Amino acid sequence: MNIDIVTPSVTTNSGGVGSALISLYQNVERFSEPGVNITVHSLSDHGEDYKKIKNTKIQYLTYPSYPPKSIGLSKELIHSLAKSSTNLIHLHGIWMMTSIAPLLAKKIRNTPYIISPHGMMDPWITSKSKIKKHLAMSFYERSSWKNANIFHALNKNEYESIKKLCPSANIRVIPNGINIPEYEKLNSRINDVKQILFLGRLHEKKNLHTLVSAIGNIDDKTYERNPFILNIVGWGDKKYENFVKNLSQKSPNRFNFIGPLYNEEKEVLLKNSDAFILPSFSEGLPMSVLEALSYGVPNLINKNCNIDNIFKEDVAFNIGTNEEEIQNGIIEFVKLNNSEVEKVRFKSLEFVKKNYSWEVVAPQYISMYKELL
Q1: What is the pLDDT of residue 185?
Q2: Contacts of 139 (CB under 8 A, 6+ apart)
Q3: Which of 62, 66, 186, 289 is the most exposed place for a label (fewest CB within 10 A)?
């Protein structure tokens, strides 16, 4: 089975999607029978490469693109896919001209393809940059969606978003997967000042500005009873980053802006964090949440993170999106004693292992691919 993967980027500029794809296809290869050949086609964007495992046959091919970068037009990528003798194509991400490659391959060679929107059909996303999306729909996305053999949704909410925009779509729901660290490597955390981690792209959809305002506006008496630091790790738009930093000046001792971290440095930070927080307006299925859960880090998130059953099973704290809800969630967590926190940590590990380990997830992707052969 030959599988061609198409995506705008698999570097650090891609955010969590690039890292998720590299891990996904390493594990698809790992759990597949011999004879599976995977080629990842992406655009050159001058970002740093994510860490890739050795002893893999996966090919990573990059292509130049025409400006502006945001439209993702590469004649070389489109021609490469049109000539490929692959058995199937899996497109990750939409609203860029990378969508043309699998569409053209199907027109020329009748190659079946799958589309994974990665949350990009969410109502919050579709309400932004409407002119660009209208043009994309008119020129290629409508045809791309119509000709796709399968749409892949990461969760039930994304299934509904896809169905709303593409009622006739044939949809499979399969989550992202995560590597589970060895449990014996997970240290007990006893920090006098709790360390709360925000890890992700610095973008308005992550709602970091409301989070920073909420923490800055906790009254001093309440804060001093159970002090904590918000460690902000990530990259993004400088204008937005400066806006958030200005908001933090009300109580600068409550914040630590670290910048981007990857691989071993990120792992050390996760091991030493007391909680992870993400009050997003919109997500597909955030890898940062799964990473935190896999290290036994309690999650303070909301329903927009689309982790099925996480609140139903009392694995995470629901913090909503507004300032008051975020404050209440943080205060509820920092009041917990060490024994209560350890219980949440254990639940987190069991939950992610049961639902998102690669042993559970990778075979579902392989089964979906076999449907198209």
Answers
A1: 54
A2: none
A3: 66
Where in the chain are the domains? 2-177+358-371, 183-356
Digit-coded pLDDT (tens) for 191-224: 789 999 999 999 999 999 999 999 999 999 999 9
Q: Taking each helix axis as running N to C, give the angle between helix 287-294 and helix 16-31, from 0 to 180 degrees, rounded to the nearest 10.
A: 60
Q: Residue range 118-137: average pLDDT? A: 95
The candidate with the shortest Cα–Cα distance to 101, out of 72, 70, 77, is 77
Give me the CATH code for the 2-177+358-371 domain, please.
Answer: 3.40.50.2000
Residue 254: closest CA among 287, 279, 237, 231: 231
Class of domain 183-356: alpha beta
> What integer is the mean pLDDT of 284-308?
95
pLDDT reported for residue 18 = 86
The pTM for the full model equals: 0.90
108-114: average pLDDT: 98
pLDDT of residue 193: 94
pLDDT at 14 over 90: no
263 falls in which pLDDT band (50, 70, 90)?
Answer: confident
